[in-house]
Amino acid sequence: MENCVFCGIASGKIKADIVRETGNFIVIRDINPVSPVHLLIISRKHFKNILDARKDKDFDPCDFFDLVGSLARDYSLEDKGFRTVINTGYDGGQTVGHFHVHFMAGRGFGWPPG
Ligand code: AMP
Ligand code: ZN
Questions:
Q1: pLDDT, tens digit, for every residue of 14-59?
Q2: Is any atom of ligand 1 closer than 6 Å to the C-beta of 51?
Q3: Whether residue 100 lies in the annotated active site
C-alpha cells in the first residue's frame, strides 16, 4: 500500500535494520526501542490490523508462532521470557496502520500496561 512505512520496508524501498525474513513476515529492530531487545514482526502483506489479518484465509498463524519460537531461541529467552504485544486501533495505541507484533525482551515488564 502506498504511503505505508511498513510496506516500504517489506518491499525494500525504505531502509530498516532487518534481523529475519520469512515467507510471510519480516523482522526488524524498532527505531525507537523501549527495551534492550525490541523487534517488530511485520506481515509482508498489508493488513490494517489483526482483525484484517484474520480475514485472510492464506494468513497462517502457525508461521507466526514458529517465528516467535525461533526468535526466543536465538536470543536465549526461553527461560527468562519476553513480551509480545499487538496494539490495535486508537485505544490500543497503534500508531502504524500495518499489522505488526512487538517482540520485547531484556528487562522485566510490568502489569497492567500503561
Ligand atoms: P505501534 O504503536 O504498535 O503501531 O508501533 C509502531 C512502532 O513502529 C513504534 O514502536 C515505532 O517506534 C516503530 N517504527 C515506526 N517507524 C519505524 C521505522 N521506519 N523503522 C523501525 N521502526 C519503526
Ligand atoms: Zn502496509
A1: 999 999 999 999 999 999 999 999 999 999 999 999 999 999 988 8
A2: no
A3: yes
